[in-house]
Amino acid sequence: QVQLVESGGGLVQPGGSLRLSCTASGSIFSINAMGWYRQAPGKERELVAAFTSGGVTNYGDSVKGRFTFSRDNAKNTVYLQMNSLKPEDTAVYYCNADLLHSDLTLMDYWGKGALVTVSS
After folding, report:
1. Which pLDDT belongs to residue 52?
2. CA–CA distance, 6 with 77 (Å, rounded to integer)
3. In degrees rounded to 5, what are phi and psi of residue 6?
4. What is the mean pLDDT of residues 90-112?
5. d(Cα 61, Cα 49) in Å, to the nearest integer?
6. Would residue 88 be called left, alpha or beta, if left means φ above 0 and alpha means ψ between -120 and 50 degrees?
7. pLDDT tens per residue across span 16-36
8. Rounded to 5 degrees, what angle do the CA atoms 76, 34, 116 make?
9. How far apart (Å, rounded) are the C-alpha atoms in residues 101 and 106?
10. Are 49 and 79 within 8 A, CB to CB?
11. Smallest Cα–Cα separation from 7: which of 117, 116, 119, 118?
12. CA pair distance 34, 30, nearest whole angstrom
């Protein structure tokens, strides 16, 4: 049984900061890829930041220079440090993981989402 659990969402004023965390647990052999996506009201889900099995980290254009993505491989955890937040960053942020199981099966998982609201 695999689970992705996000934490750190909440309400913050424009210009403020938040840090999101996501931990993968369960029967995991290794992590092939892991990252964050977000979906604002009335919008399509979009990439925020993610790393691939090749070790390359990609950021969405709208968050470059403001958000920082990091990971702790030993804890199966990724983080998203969000600085200089803007009202347009308001969205549900979803953790995503592509996980390799012991039988060499790759499966894609999603967390339930963390709501981030940026408002004065």
Report:
1. 85
2. 10
3. -95, 155
4. 95
5. 10
6. alpha
7. 999 999 999 998 888 999 999
8. 95
9. 6
10. no
11. 116
12. 11
